[in-house]
Amino acid sequence: MKLITLEEHFLDKRISEANDAFNPPSPEQPKELQDFYKSRIRFGQALFDIKDKRLPYMDSQRISMQVLSYTSPISDKVPAHEAVKICRQANDILAERIAEYPDRFAGFATLPMADPKAAADELERCVKEYHFCGTLVAGQYQEHFYDEPQFFPIFERAEKLDVPVSFHPALINPRIQDFYFTSPNWGLAVAGQFASAGYGWHMDVGIHVLRMIMSGIFDKLPGLKIISGHWGELVPAFLERLDYMFSPEITGLKKNISEYYKENVYVTPSGIFSSMQLEYLVKLMGADHILYAVDFPYIQPDNVYEFLDESNLTREQKELIAHGNAERILHLGGN
Ligand code: CA
User: Fold this and answer.
1) Which of 59, 172, 194, 217 is most buried, with most CB under 10 Å away?
2) Contact assessment for residue 212 and residue 146, using Cβ atoms and an 8 Å cutoff
3) DSSP code of 1?
4) Whether the predicted pLDDT of 335 surpasses 50
């Protein structure tokens, strides 16, 4: 069983430095918070090092191919014309690294969301020139969600090129962080984790995907495909309720929320290897709407192959999730 995983992060120092140049150093942070952030970057070297860190892990887990993406978006503090340049460089560098191991890696483009027309063009360049297989977007752009009309050209182009857009978490709006996730009952480290990878940023991406559906974008672009990690970021369990609350009479959409979700959204585990989630999502969405993902290097489970291979699914379902769906949707062909 060939394994293709597709939430696998990558960094290059030149791009981090170009990005950081536009982010003023933050004021002195409390030690508790500094330690928290340090613990989060303990896998840092594996982001950069393909030969000695990434490939040995892939081999140990029998992963045939990773679809690489930059670990965080180009900062929304970078002016548009600079963002266009940095993204272009970022994609060129990623393409070079992929070319060193073309049978082991594919890529998701990084796009300058500051300039949606340029972002659409960059996506097209990456797909046509480098055979990248989609894009990964993270968080919002300057407090604007991507359902807003100015971003439409990016999704229109993705549909035209027949490549998916993967919605990934990022740090959430500080006002939401303060309101929902801080308390006199716990410290800054717990608040930071609660607001990010512990819960908050997953809730945030789940809402983002729902906003895309509510915006009617899938009526305009019925072929658009969205990838949502972490078993759909808390949304799948709520689909019946969403259908009950948001009938087409209320939303003005052509279909129920769950119909768009099951048709246009593809879900991955992002390294949360829970059998109950796997079986539930296959039952809900069908095995043809589940893709495989580890979230390397932030998560490095040692049962990537066994989790799927030893599950209760049929051989055909396992093959779809392991590689068949990725080959079909990301045009990784080969077979
Ligand atoms: Ca991730």
Assistant:
1) 217
2) yes
3) -
4) no
Residue 257 φ then ψ, to 5°? -55, -45
pLDDT of 22: 87
Q: What is the pLDDT of residues 56-90, one digit of tens each?
A: 999 999 999 999 999 877 888 999 999 999 999 99
Least confident residue range of 60-74, 110-124, 215-229, 264-278: 60-74
Estimate the crossing angle of helix 200-214 against helix 257-264, to 10 degrees: 110
Strand, helix or coil at 146? coil
Instruction: Pick the closest to residue 66 from 273, 300, 308 (CA basis).
Output: 300
Are 3 and 318 spatial neighbours (Cβ–Cβ below 8 Å)?
no
CA–centroid distance, residue 29 to ligand 1 (Å): 25
Between CA 36 and CA 323 the distance in angstroms is 36
What's the 35 CA to ligand 1 centre distance in angstroms?
20
C-beta separation of 260 from 213 below 8 A: yes
The mean pLDDT of 222-248, rounded to a whole number, is 98
Q: The whole model's pTM is what?
A: 0.95
Helix (H, G, I), strand (E, B) or coil at 292: coil
135 DSSP β-pair partners: 109, 165
Q: How far is the CA of 298 from the centre of ligand 1 (A)?
A: 7
Task: Scan for tokens 């480290």, then name that residue.
Answer: 189
Q: How far is CA 255 from the centre of its chain?
A: 25
Confidence of residue 39 (pLDDT cuts 50, 70, 90): low
